[in-house]
């Protein structure tokens, strides 16, 4: 019997390399990436419907009211949230779904879906984080400072995650994330249907059927 898909939640400090890691993961057809809604303005090269659903504050608040978001949070000056329908339909079809979301949302997801696997991606040290964030060149100095301040808050809750993955060499990091996903999928608690199925088959054999 087919198992329902697994929720994979990937968080990390701004500039840690989450987006870069997720891009590598989604080259594999087996994963579905949830596209979030946000009130943030698009960065150059970002596309509506692919990177985010870029919407107004009013539209976002409407989605909250209509219970269309699985989770949402405020990050620095904007709202971010996970549209519920896509995630639910993919999980129901048995696909693993990746949510690339910040910490408040991630911990809310864990409360609602205790079997979700939570990974936190981090550079090997803080200086590299600052260099990556500034090197990306997508935020002004004030926003970079706010994002680094947010990282100082997030660090207090890193131990709530299931796994910490260091993003030093990108390919090593991606391989580690993939290994964690495979190991999580193989957990006994994620294979109850399989266990029940083989239990049934063994009973049938014991009864002399087949
Ligand atoms: P996040 O999505 O976590 O904010 P990004 O994926 O945008 O971070 O990465 C931040 C910057 O760091 C980008 O310029 C990206 O190219 C770079 N980067 C990501 N991973 C690595 C890595 N392993 N080594 C060197 N640079 C990296
Ligand atoms: P960015 O502006 O750099 O794209 O994202 C800022 C932060 O918002 C990142 O930590 C990112 O993971 C997070 N984020 C993106 N989408 C969502 C979402 O749907 N929900 C929550 N809670 N956080 C999100």
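-> sequence recovered:
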């Amino acid at each position: 019997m087919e198992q329902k898909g697994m929720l994979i939640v990937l968080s990390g400090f701004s500039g840690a390399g989450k987006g870069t890691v997720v891009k590598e993961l989604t080259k594999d057809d087996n994963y579905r990436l949830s596209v979030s809604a946000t009130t943030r303005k698009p960065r150059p090269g970002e596309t509506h419907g692919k990177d985010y659903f870029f919407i107004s504050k009013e539209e976002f608040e409407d989605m909250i009211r209509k219970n269309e978001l699985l989770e949402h949070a405020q990050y620095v000056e904007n709202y971010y949230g996970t549209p519920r329908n896509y995630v639910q339909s993919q999980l129901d079809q048995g696909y693993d779904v990746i949510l690339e979301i910040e910490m408040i949302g991630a911990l809310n997801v864990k409360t609602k879906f205790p079997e979700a696997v939570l990974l936190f991606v981090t550079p090997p040290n803080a200086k590299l984080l600052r260099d990556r964030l500034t090197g990306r060149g997508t935020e002004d100095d004030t926003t970079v400072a706010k994002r680094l301040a947010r990282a100082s808050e997030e660090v207090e809750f890193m131990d709530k995650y299931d796994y910490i993955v260091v993003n030093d060499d990108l390919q090593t990091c991606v391989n580690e994330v993939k290994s964690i996903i495979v190991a999580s999928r193989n957990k006994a608690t994620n294979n109850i249907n399989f266990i029940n199925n083989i239990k049934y088959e063994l009973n049938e054999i014991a009864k002399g059927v087949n």
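Residues 170-185 form the longest helix (16 residues).
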